[in-house]
């Protein structure tokens, strides 16, 4: 029973994610979630007390999933240079935003329709996400491998570049063109942290 409940809850969250990415917070409603999930609206209230609790679950699920993907990729290169680690994170983040989970870009890169009540939730999500990149940058600085005068500014610039990439690396591009653009962004963004980039 518990597994079945968890599966249904996850299905509801996935459906709500689709609707949020399609219509934004204001355009998403529980009636559409219920219809697309093929359950009665009243049944939704067995899982979530209302729209805001469901939306909060969407934000948390996406945050956990993105951070898990980043950590998995980082684990694969944990014994390599900090430059290779930051390049790996940049590459995976671009892949998430432009290929494997474009709804993340829709909901987090340009969150223009979030009500004020969700601002703290979004900030906390971004803080957790940023911490993964920050950990690598701080380790690279401590090891003398990176040279950026202000890591906070560099990280803000990096996230700006990553968010922007979701606008011009379109899903409709051929795979080889997307891969070429991914690597171009990785090369350019990584220069903000590397000693080589600092000398240019």
TrEMBL record:
It holds the Pfam family TetR_C_24. The keyword Ribosomal protein does not apply. Keywords: DNA-binding, Transcription, Transcription regulation. InterPro entries: Cro/C1-type_HTH, Homeodomain-like_sf, HTH-type_TetR-like_transc_reg, HTH_TetR, KstR2_TetR_C, Tet_transcr_reg_TetR-rel_C_sf. The lineage of its organism: Bacteria, Bacillati, Actinomycetota, Actinomycetes, Pseudonocardiales. Residues 6-66 form the HTH tetR-type domain. Transmembrane segments: none annotated. The keyword Transcription regulation applies. It comes from Pseudonocardia adelaidensis. PROSITE patterns: HTH_TETR_2. This is TetR/AcrR family transcriptional regulator. Residues 29-48 bind DNA.
